[in-house]
Amino acid sequence: MKIKLFPTLNSVEEEDLKGTTAVVIDVLRATSVITTAVYNGCLDVVPVLEIEDALTYKNEEVLLGGERRGFKIEGFDLSNSPLEYNRQNVEGKRIVFTTSNGTRAIIKAKYCDTILIGSMLNAKYLADFVVKNGSDINIICSGTDGNFSIDDFLCAGKIIYEINKLKETDMTDFATLAYLTYMNNRENIFEYLKYASHYKYMMSIGLEEDIKYCFKEDILDVVPYFKDGSIKKYPL
Protein backbone atom coordinates (compact mmCIF):
# COMPACT_ATOMS: atom_id res chain seq x y z
CA MET A 1 0.00 0.00 0.00
CA LYS A 2 1.31 3.43 -0.95
CA ILE A 3 0.58 6.49 1.18
CA LYS A 4 1.01 10.03 -0.14
CA LEU A 5 0.45 13.05 2.07
CA PHE A 6 -0.47 16.49 0.77
CA PRO A 7 0.45 19.17 3.33
CA THR A 8 -2.18 21.71 2.25
CA LEU A 9 -5.24 21.99 0.06
CA ASN A 10 -3.27 24.18 -2.34
CA SER A 11 -0.68 21.45 -2.89
CA VAL A 12 -3.26 19.16 -4.51
CA GLU A 13 -3.83 19.03 -8.26
CA GLU A 14 -6.67 17.28 -10.05
CA GLU A 15 -4.28 14.86 -11.75
CA ASP A 16 -2.99 13.72 -8.35
CA LEU A 17 -6.42 12.45 -7.38
CA LYS A 18 -8.00 10.70 -10.34
CA GLY A 19 -8.65 7.04 -9.65
CA THR A 20 -7.44 7.20 -6.04
CA THR A 21 -8.78 6.90 -2.50
CA ALA A 22 -8.47 10.11 -0.48
CA VAL A 23 -8.65 10.84 3.23
CA VAL A 24 -9.47 14.49 3.95
CA ILE A 25 -8.40 16.02 7.26
CA ASP A 26 -9.36 19.29 8.93
CA VAL A 27 -9.01 18.16 12.52
CA LEU A 28 -9.71 21.63 13.99
CA ARG A 29 -12.57 21.36 13.33
CA ALA A 30 -14.52 20.49 10.19
CA THR A 31 -13.75 16.79 9.81
CA SER A 32 -14.16 16.29 13.56
CA VAL A 33 -17.60 17.89 13.29
CA ILE A 34 -18.56 15.72 10.33
CA THR A 35 -17.36 12.53 12.01
CA THR A 36 -19.31 13.41 15.16
CA ALA A 37 -22.49 14.32 13.27
CA VAL A 38 -22.44 11.13 11.20
CA TYR A 39 -21.78 9.03 14.29
CA ASN A 40 -24.71 10.70 16.03
CA GLY A 41 -27.14 9.73 13.32
CA CYS A 42 -27.54 12.71 11.02
CA LEU A 43 -29.15 11.92 7.68
CA ASP A 44 -26.13 13.29 5.82
CA VAL A 45 -23.79 16.28 5.65
CA VAL A 46 -23.76 18.39 2.49
CA PRO A 47 -20.51 20.40 2.17
CA VAL A 48 -20.76 23.67 0.25
CA LEU A 49 -18.26 26.38 -0.55
CA GLU A 50 -20.08 29.60 0.23
CA ILE A 51 -22.52 30.92 2.82
CA GLU A 52 -24.92 31.84 0.02
CA ASP A 53 -24.90 28.24 -1.21
CA ALA A 54 -25.86 26.99 2.24
CA LEU A 55 -28.71 29.47 2.61
CA THR A 56 -30.43 28.09 -0.51
CA TYR A 57 -31.07 24.87 1.44
CA LYS A 58 -32.68 26.61 4.40
CA ASN A 59 -35.89 24.97 5.65
CA GLU A 60 -37.17 23.36 8.84
CA GLU A 61 -35.82 19.93 7.82
CA VAL A 62 -32.26 21.17 7.33
CA LEU A 63 -29.67 22.44 9.79
CA LEU A 64 -27.11 24.97 8.60
CA GLY A 65 -23.71 24.64 10.23
CA GLY A 66 -20.27 26.12 9.83
CA GLU A 67 -17.95 29.02 10.54
CA ARG A 68 -15.91 31.89 9.21
CA ARG A 69 -12.72 32.75 11.10
CA GLY A 70 -13.80 30.28 13.75
CA PHE A 71 -17.11 31.98 14.56
CA LYS A 72 -20.69 30.87 13.94
CA ILE A 73 -22.22 32.32 10.78
CA GLU A 74 -25.13 34.71 11.31
CA GLY A 75 -28.45 32.98 10.63
CA PHE A 76 -27.01 29.47 10.91
CA ASP A 77 -28.31 26.85 13.35
CA LEU A 78 -24.94 25.48 14.44
CA SER A 79 -21.36 26.67 14.59
CA ASN A 80 -18.25 24.60 13.82
CA SER A 81 -18.06 23.18 17.34
CA PRO A 82 -18.33 19.37 17.34
CA LEU A 83 -19.83 19.61 20.82
CA GLU A 84 -23.01 21.03 19.27
CA TYR A 85 -23.47 18.05 16.95
CA ASN A 86 -24.83 15.72 19.59
CA ARG A 87 -27.49 13.11 18.90
CA GLN A 88 -30.27 15.28 20.28
CA ASN A 89 -29.48 18.05 17.81
CA VAL A 90 -28.62 16.15 14.64
CA GLU A 91 -30.24 12.71 14.56
CA GLY A 92 -32.27 12.28 11.37
CA LYS A 93 -31.35 15.75 10.11
CA ARG A 94 -29.63 16.86 6.93
CA ILE A 95 -26.77 19.26 7.73
CA VAL A 96 -25.58 21.75 5.15
CA PHE A 97 -22.07 22.74 6.13
CA THR A 98 -19.55 25.37 5.09
CA THR A 99 -16.19 26.20 6.68
CA SER A 100 -13.10 28.20 5.86
CA ASN A 101 -10.92 25.22 4.98
CA GLY A 102 -12.34 21.74 5.48
CA THR A 103 -15.33 21.82 3.16
CA ARG A 104 -13.15 23.30 0.43
CA ALA A 105 -10.76 20.37 0.72
CA ILE A 106 -13.60 17.86 0.60
CA ILE A 107 -15.07 19.40 -2.52
CA LYS A 108 -11.64 19.64 -4.19
CA ALA A 109 -11.19 15.90 -3.60
CA LYS A 110 -14.20 15.17 -5.82
CA TYR A 111 -11.92 13.73 -8.53
CA CYS A 112 -11.06 10.73 -6.31
CA ASP A 113 -12.87 7.43 -6.66
CA THR A 114 -13.39 7.21 -2.89
CA ILE A 115 -13.34 10.13 -0.44
CA LEU A 116 -13.17 9.43 3.30
CA ILE A 117 -13.33 11.84 6.22
CA GLY A 118 -10.52 11.56 8.77
CA SER A 119 -10.03 12.81 12.31
CA MET A 120 -8.37 11.77 15.55
CA LEU A 121 -11.80 10.61 16.69
CA ASN A 122 -12.09 7.82 14.11
CA ALA A 123 -8.45 7.27 13.06
CA LYS A 124 -8.18 3.64 14.15
CA TYR A 125 -11.43 2.65 12.45
CA LEU A 126 -10.55 4.57 9.31
CA ALA A 127 -7.14 2.85 9.18
CA ASP A 128 -8.77 -0.56 9.51
CA PHE A 129 -11.14 0.29 6.67
CA VAL A 130 -8.47 1.48 4.22
CA VAL A 131 -6.27 -1.55 4.94
CA LYS A 132 -9.19 -3.92 4.24
CA ASN A 133 -9.99 -1.91 1.11
CA GLY A 134 -6.40 -2.37 -0.01
CA SER A 135 -6.04 0.62 -2.31
CA ASP A 136 -3.30 3.25 -2.22
CA ILE A 137 -4.35 6.42 -0.41
CA ASN A 138 -3.80 10.14 -0.68
CA ILE A 139 -4.14 12.00 2.62
CA ILE A 140 -5.12 15.64 2.14
CA CYS A 141 -4.51 18.10 4.96
CA SER A 142 -6.81 21.08 4.57
CA GLY A 143 -4.41 23.48 6.25
CA THR A 144 -5.41 26.95 7.42
CA ASP A 145 -6.05 29.70 4.87
CA GLY A 146 -3.81 27.92 2.38
CA ASN A 147 -0.99 27.41 4.88
CA PHE A 148 0.43 24.28 6.49
CA SER A 149 -1.12 23.36 9.87
CA ILE A 150 0.67 21.33 12.52
CA ASP A 151 -2.69 20.11 13.84
CA ASP A 152 -3.68 18.47 10.54
CA PHE A 153 -0.16 17.08 10.20
CA LEU A 154 -0.41 15.38 13.60
CA CYS A 155 -3.77 13.88 12.69
CA ALA A 156 -2.35 12.59 9.41
CA GLY A 157 0.51 11.05 11.38
CA LYS A 158 -1.97 9.33 13.70
CA ILE A 159 -3.87 7.80 10.77
CA ILE A 160 -0.63 6.68 9.09
CA TYR A 161 0.58 5.24 12.40
CA GLU A 162 -2.60 3.17 12.74
CA ILE A 163 -2.32 1.93 9.15
CA ASN A 164 1.28 0.86 9.67
CA LYS A 165 0.29 -1.14 12.75
CA LEU A 166 -1.84 -3.26 10.41
CA LYS A 167 0.13 -3.37 7.17
CA GLU A 168 3.55 -2.52 5.76
CA THR A 169 3.32 0.59 3.58
CA ASP A 170 5.35 2.55 1.05
CA MET A 171 5.23 6.14 2.33
CA THR A 172 6.39 9.35 0.70
CA ASP A 173 8.90 11.35 2.71
CA PHE A 174 6.26 13.77 3.91
CA ALA A 175 3.99 10.92 5.01
CA THR A 176 6.95 9.34 6.81
CA LEU A 177 7.67 12.61 8.59
CA ALA A 178 4.06 12.86 9.78
CA TYR A 179 4.20 9.25 10.98
CA LEU A 180 7.42 9.84 12.94
CA THR A 181 6.19 13.14 14.37
CA TYR A 182 3.05 11.54 15.75
CA MET A 183 4.83 8.40 16.94
CA ASN A 184 7.45 10.39 18.84
CA ASN A 185 4.91 12.74 20.46
CA ARG A 186 1.83 10.59 20.95
CA GLU A 187 2.29 10.24 24.70
CA ASN A 188 2.01 14.01 25.19
CA ILE A 189 0.41 15.30 22.02
CA PHE A 190 -0.69 18.65 23.45
CA GLU A 191 2.88 19.66 24.23
CA TYR A 192 3.58 19.50 20.50
CA LEU A 193 0.21 20.82 19.38
CA LYS A 194 0.57 24.03 21.40
CA TYR A 195 3.15 25.31 18.90
CA ALA A 196 0.57 25.30 16.09
CA SER A 197 -0.60 28.75 15.03
CA HIS A 198 -4.13 27.47 14.48
CA TYR A 199 -4.16 26.07 18.01
CA LYS A 200 -3.04 29.43 19.37
CA TYR A 201 -5.75 31.25 17.43
CA MET A 202 -8.48 28.89 18.60
CA MET A 203 -7.33 29.25 22.19
CA SER A 204 -7.48 33.03 21.80
CA ILE A 205 -11.19 32.88 20.85
CA GLY A 206 -12.12 30.54 23.68
CA LEU A 207 -12.29 27.16 21.94
CA GLU A 208 -10.18 25.10 24.34
CA GLU A 209 -12.92 22.52 24.93
CA ASP A 210 -13.31 21.97 21.19
CA ILE A 211 -9.57 21.36 20.87
CA LYS A 212 -9.61 18.85 23.71
CA TYR A 213 -12.50 16.99 22.12
CA CYS A 214 -11.02 17.01 18.60
CA PHE A 215 -7.83 15.38 19.90
CA LYS A 216 -9.55 12.51 21.65
CA GLU A 217 -8.34 9.39 19.88
CA ASP A 218 -10.39 6.49 18.50
CA ILE A 219 -13.66 7.18 20.30
CA LEU A 220 -16.02 7.03 17.29
CA ASP A 221 -16.27 3.81 15.27
CA VAL A 222 -17.50 5.38 12.05
CA VAL A 223 -16.07 6.07 8.59
CA PRO A 224 -17.84 8.96 6.84
CA TYR A 225 -17.57 9.02 3.05
CA PHE A 226 -18.36 11.69 0.45
CA LYS A 227 -20.29 10.67 -2.63
CA ASP A 228 -22.74 12.40 -4.97
CA GLY A 229 -22.53 15.65 -3.06
CA SER A 230 -23.12 14.44 0.49
CA ILE A 231 -21.35 12.67 3.35
CA LYS A 232 -22.82 9.58 4.99
CA LYS A 233 -21.76 6.69 7.19
CA TYR A 234 -19.97 4.02 5.24
CA PRO A 235 -21.81 0.71 5.60
CA LEU A 236 -19.10 -1.18 7.47
From TrEMBL:
Belongs to the ComB family. Gene3D superfamilies: ComB-like. Keywords: Hydrolase, Magnesium. Its EC number is 3.1.3.71. Its cofactor is Mg(2+). It catalyses: (2R)-O-phospho-3-sulfolactate + H2O = (2R)-3-sulfolactate + phosphate. This is Probable 2-phosphosulfolactate phosphatase. It holds the Pfam family 2-ph_phosp. The lineage of its organism: Bacteria, Bacillati, Bacillota, Clostridia, Eubacteriales. One of its GO terms (molecular function) is magnesium ion binding. It comes from the Bacteria. InterPro entries: ComB-like (IPR005238), ComB-like_sf (IPR036702).
